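Appendix B, record 7
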Amino acid sequence: MAQEFDVVVIGSGPAGYVAAIRCAQLGLKTACVEKRMELGGTCLNVGCIPSKTLLHSTELFYKIKKDGAKLGIFTDGLSMQFSKMMERKKEVVSTLGEGIKGLFKKNKVTLFTGSASFTSSHSISISQGPTSEVVSGKNFIIATGSEPTPLPFLPFDERKIVSSTGALSLPFVPEKLVVVGAGVIGVELGSVYARLGCQVTFVEFLDKICPTLDASISKAFQEILIKQGMQFHLSSKVTGIDLSEKNALVKVLKSDGSQLNLDADVVLVSVGRRPFTQNLSLDKAGIELSPKGQVPIDGRFRTKIPHIYAIGDIVDGPMLAHKASEEGVTVAEIIAGLSPHLDYVSIPNVVYTHPEVASVGLTEEEALQKGFTIKTGTYFFRSNSRGKCTMEEDGFVKVIADEKSDKLLGVHILGAHASEMIAIAVLAFEKRMTSLDLANICYPHPTLSEAIKEAALSIHKKAIHK
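Structure tokens (predicted):
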């Protein structure tokens, strides 16, 4: 006889495991199904966590190598051991995965390991190898995440032509890496290998890197990455590739019609991600996908079938782990009969390079397109005392507000530790603060976060240190 649950969550990534835990906290009998042996989904196993671990290791190596002498730190014969960096990455991933298992046990979430497929709108079959079992649920939450998008003429072999997954598990540091796509994932992984001495070249179809960023931030960001040794071919597209046993020759067509051939040991294809819904048999539950392959939902995360919900990368919106987790909490509380609210305007975006990029709200271009009359304030970290102390002087803060009401419209940070500082701006958005409210907060001194205060003050011609 099939086991029955109040809620069955399919997928244990940042959306799924958080939803399962919150459901259990609210007194719902909850199960979570995960096809991998490891919990945490893409983010923990082959995404956010391993990439940030490698970014941290390589940043330390690069900074000491580049600036150690200026700081009075002399390391004769400084070297790195790539295999040790990879070992630490595995340890971090494993530890956090075990942590999720512990949270499931603590909150009495029943875990099933295997691939789930709907047999009806109220039941799924969970298969692992030759065995399978049926589980029934009053409610289902689909949280199966996403996968890297391949190019038709550049299929992943995870050896010479790699996805982000393969790039996080290379057995060596390539001499030359060509990255197809200069979005967030591409520049993060490109940074990892550039810091270790690899020649990294980007080919981007659009005319700027990380195209969702504010234009002024994107331009300055690219200039910094070029100074770090990375090369960019914008408004260009890959038209083909010649593979040999030793290397790959990437054929590029530039906007002026000229052809370019790029030699590479490894080619990283990073042109985006697509929803992962394969083998779920959604049709048997009465659910059809959108033309983009997403699961359509209403404003309460309900699919066409009211007791089946969908969250995370498989629904419309930015593919962000923290966005997925907030959706997990929200949908759990909806199922439990509560009335939660999730404000997507307050969800931040982060690029974990060095310096980092973080933003919340509208870019200047978006604000103008929406018809706002805007005012902006900027402040550069080269004038910030903490930036001087720590040699973290690259970048700036940009604050955008409505001319009439002074309502905050956007906060954008290009600088060290931007991922931590952006939480100040997120809180300001949540509390509907004005730019003057943001400026009038007392920030500790000396800190990099004082640049937020100065940028907000500069909107009102009150900046002290500008």
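Remarks on this record: The longest strand covers residues 131-142. The chain has a mean pLDDT of 97.
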